[in-house]
Amino acid sequence: MLYFIIQRMLQSVLVMLVVAAISFALFSYVGDPIEAMTGEDDPIELKQQLRASLGLDQPIPIQFARFVGNAVQGDFGVSYRARQPVMQLIAERFPATMELVFVASLIALFVGIPAGIYTALRRDSPVSYALQTGSLIGISMPTFLTGILLILVFSVWLKVLPSFGRGETVDIGWWSTGFLTVSGLKSLILPSITLGLFSTTLIMRLVRTEMLEVMRTDYIKFARARGLRDRSINFRHAFKNTLVPVVTITGMQVGSLIAFAIITETVFQWPGLGLLFIQAVGNVDIPVMAAYLVLTALMFVVINLAVDILYFFIDPRLRADRAVASGATT
Amino acid sequence: MSAPDVDTTRGFLGRTRDIFARMGRHDLWLSFRSKPVVIVAAIVAGVLILSALAAPLIAPHDPYDMASVSLLYAELPPAWVDGGDPAFPLGTDLQGRDMLSTILYGSRTSILVGAAAVALSLVLGVAAGLVAGYGGGVVDSVLMRIADIQLTFPAILIALLFDGVVSAIFSHGSSDQYALLVIILAIGVSNWVLFARVVRSSTLVEKGKDYVKAARVTGVSSLAILLKHILPNTLGPVLVIATINLALAILGEATLSFLGVGLPPTQPSLGTLIRIGNEYLFSGAWWMTIFPGVTLILLVLSVNLLGDWLRDALNPKLR
Amino acid sequence: MQRDQQPRSDAAAPPILEVRNLVVAFHGLAGTLRALDDVSFSIAPGEILGVVGESGAGKSLTGAAVIGLLERPGRIDGGEILLAGRRIDNLPHAQMRKVRGREIGAIFQDPLTSLNPLLTVGEQLTETIATHLALSAKAARARAVELLAEVGIPAPANRIDDYPHHFSGGMRQRVVIALALCANPKLVIADEPTTALDVSVQAQILELIRRLGREHGTAVMLITHDMGVIAETADRVAVMYAGRVAEIGPTREIIETPHHPYTVGLMGSVPVIGEDAEDLVQIDGSMPRLNAIPPGCAFNPRCGEVMGRCLSQRPGLMPAGRSQAACWLMDTVTGDAA
C-alpha cells in the first residue's frame, strides 16, 4: 500500500514537472516577456538590464530551475496586464472559485448519487423515466447555455435572483466569503447550479449503471438467496461495491468543475480564477496563464492522489498485505 | 492452432465489408427499428445536419450578403410574436440578419468544425493506438503516459490552453484568418486519447491471434498487417467513439466560441451566435440566444443518443 | 466409492419439497417461451436429489423458481411449490424473503464471485444469522465461528475477520456453504457447487454436502451437469431435457438401467467424477432451443426409437422399473409399448 502511494506520488511529481515545463516554455518562448513589460520607446539598455535582472540571459536549464524554485515559493512574476504580482491576483480570486466549486460539488454529490440509486432500484417508476430523460438533456447541455437559460428565467423574466457577481462578501483574513450575507448566498444559487448540473447528471448516470451492474453479480444474488433485507442488499452490499468507480469519476468531476468554472464565471461575471484566466488568454498575459495552469494542475494532482488513497478505505482487496501473510490455503 | 481463418489476399475494403457484415448480423438494423427514441434522434440529427450542409441552398436570406441586410429590419422578434415579420420566421439580429438563416449557416460551421476536429482526433488517436499496441516497449509506455497525463485534465482546458498559446504566437497577425484552423486543431488534439486507448487494446488482442502471427511469419510487412488486419477490427469501437466525440467536439467548439476564443463573428458558429445574443439578453431579445441554443441542444442530444445506441448495439462492454 | 443405496429417509415421511406441474415462462416482445413445462418432483427429509441435464435444460431455473428468485421476464405461469406442505410459490415478497435463508439455503456455482468482496466473511455470516435468528451480536458471532468450524475451515476464530480474497476457492466454497446453513434450513439448493473447483477439492465439498444431509436431516437439491457428481452424492436423480423431466428415480437404477432413450444416451459411458456430462452425451444433434421445441415429445428429433405418437402426443411420467420415465415406450396401459 505504501509502495503504491509512493509510486503515485512520484507520478504526481512527474505530472507537475511536465506542467511546469509547459508553463515555462509558454513563459519563455511565447511572445517576449521584455517586450511585454516595456514600452516601445524604452531604451535598449533598459531592456537588457531587465533581461539580466530577470535572469533571461542565463542558460535554459538554469532558467527552468529558477522558474520551478520561484513557482514552489508562489512567485510567478508580474502580470503583463495588471502590473501586479500574479500570486496576488490569484489569491484575490481564489476564494470566489473555491466557494463556487464547493457548492457545485455538494449539489452534484447530494443530488446525483441519490438520484442514481433511485433510478437503478425503481427502474420502471415514472420518476425514474423523468430523471433519466432529464439527465440526457443535462448531459447534452453546454454549461454556458444552462447559465444563460437560468439567467433568462430567474433574472430577466422573474427578476428573483442576481445574474452577475458575488454579491456582498465578508473578509475573513485574506479569504473573502459570500456564505455570510444574503446577497452573497443568493448570488451563489444560479452559478453553482449551472456549474453543478453537468456533473450531477454524469454522477447520476454513472451510479445508476454501476448499481445495475452490481445488482447482476453473483454475490448480490447470493445475498438475496440468504433472505437479507432489501435495505441491506441495496446499500450495504450493492452501493458500497459501486464506490470505487463512483469515487474515481467524482474526483475527476471535481477537477473538471475547476476547469468548467471558467465558463460559468464568464457567464455570470463571477470574479474567480476562471475569469482571470480567460481574460489572460484574451490579453496574452502569459504569467497569469502559466500560474493558472500550474495551480489547477496542482489541484488535479492532489484530487487524484486523494482518490487513490480513498480506494484503500473502500476496497480491502487493495490492502494486499494480509493476503500475502495468510496465503492461500486449501 | 488453426490455420489463418482470414483470406489475406483481400484488401482493407474486403475486411471492412466483413466488419459491417458482422454488424449486420448483430441485428443492428433490428435494434434500430425497435427503439423509437433512436429513430427520432436519427431523424432530428439527419434533418439538422442535412439542412445545415445545404444552408446556402435553402436559407431564405444570405446573412453574409451585406446588400440584402438592412438595419431597418434589426431586432425583429419571431414571426408569431407582435411586431414580427413573416419574412423572418425566427426574427432578426442586431444588424437585421434573418435568424433562421444565420442559424443554418452557424450550424453548418459548427458541424464542419466538429467533424474536422473528430477526424483529426481519430487520425491521431488511431495512429497512436496502433503504434503503441503493435510496437509496444518504450513507444507504448511514452504514448500511454502522455495519454494518462492528458486525461488528468479536462479536454476543454487543453483546448483552451492550446488555443491561447497558438493565438499568442500569432498575436501580431490577424488571428481571425487562422481561427477556424486553430479551433479544429485545439479540439482535435484535446480528444485523441480515447481513440488511442481503444485502438491500442484491440491491437493487443489482434496481435496475439494466429492469423497475425502467420502473416508475420510469412514476411508480410508490419504496415500491411496493421492496415489490412488490425485496423479493420478496431472499426466498431472507433465508430462509436467518433459518434460520441462528434457531440463533444460540437459542444467544445460552441464553448470556445462562447468564451470568445473560438470563431469570430465574421464566421459565426452556433456558439458565436449564442455569445452575441447573450450580450443583448437583458434587452429582451431572447430569440437571438434561445433559437441557436435550442438548435445546439437538439444537435448534441440527438448525436449523443445515436452514439449511446451504437455503443450498446455494437459493444455493450465499451463504456 | 459405492455407497449404500438404501434411501436414508423413511418413505412415509411427508416430502420437504414438492413441486407440482411447475410452468415457468419468459414473456418477451417476441412472444412467450416456456422454459419449464410441467415439472414435478419431490424431495424427502435428508434426501439428496440430483437434478441433471445439459445446459439450458432448465435445472438452474427450477432452483431459482423454488427459491423465488426468477429474474424478469421469467415468471411462474402454473403449478405449485410446497415447502413442508406449505405453498410458497405465491407468497408476497416480504414473506418469501423470510423463507429464503431461513428455510431454504442456497449454494451457488462460483465461490469466487458468490461472496461480497468488501465485507469480511464474519460480517456476511453474522448479518445472515441476525436476519433470521433472534441472537445477540455476540451469540451470532459465536455461531458464525461454529459454522466455519463445521464446514471445515481451520482456525475459524482467526479466519472470521478475513475478507473473501484471503481464502482459496475451495475454502470460499466452504464459507458459501456455511452461509447457506446459517439458520439451519430444511432444504439446501446447491447449483453446480463443485463445477468451478479443482477436482481434488470437488470430492471434499461433495463429502461435506453429504455429511450435512446425514447429520442435520437437511434435504438437498443438487443441480449439476456432471453425472459423476450425481453418482457420488445423490440418492435419487431427476434427468431434465428441454425444460421437462425426462426420467426420475433412484440413482443406481438411473445409472444401471436407464429407461428413457435420452437417459440411455446420457449413461453411454461409465461416469467418472470430474468428467463433464457434455462429453458423455453420445446422441446425435443437440437439445432444441426454447423457441423450437417440437410438438409431442421434446426428444423426438434425436430419438432412435421414435414412434408415430411421439410426434404429436406428449408423454407424461410413467412407471418404469423403480423409476418413472416420460416416454411412450413405457406405456403399458394402451399396450403400445415395445
UniProtKB/TrEMBL annotation, chain A:
Keywords: Cell membrane, Membrane, Transmembrane, Transmembrane helix, Transport. It comes from Acuticoccus mangrovi. One of its GO terms (cellular component) is plasma membrane. This is ABC transporter permease. It holds the Pfam family BPD_transp_1_N. It is found in: Cell membrane. Belongs to the binding-protein-dependent transport system permease family. The chain crosses the membrane at residues 12-30, 100-121, 133-158, 188-207, 243-270, 290-314. InterPro entries: BPD_transp_1_N, MetI-like, MetI-like_sf. GO terms for biological process: transmembrane transport. Residues 94-311 form the ABC transmembrane type-1 domain. It is a multi-pass membrane protein.
UniProtKB/TrEMBL annotation, chain C:
InterPro entries: AAA+_ATPase, ABC_Ni/Peptide_Import, ABC_transporter-like_ATP-bd, ABC_transporter-like_CS, Oligopep_ABC_C, P-loop_NTPase. GO terms for molecular function: ATP binding; ATP hydrolysis activity. Keywords: ATP-binding, Cell membrane, Membrane, Nucleotide-binding, Transport. It is a peripheral membrane protein. It comes from the Bacteria. PANTHER family: DIPEPTIDE TRANSPORT ATP-BINDING PROTEIN DPPD, OLIGOPEPTIDE TRANSPORT ATP-BINDING PROTEIN APPD. Belongs to the ABC transporter superfamily. This is ABC transporter ATP-binding protein. The lineage of its organism: Bacteria, Pseudomonadati, Pseudomonadota, Alphaproteobacteria, Hyphomicrobiales.
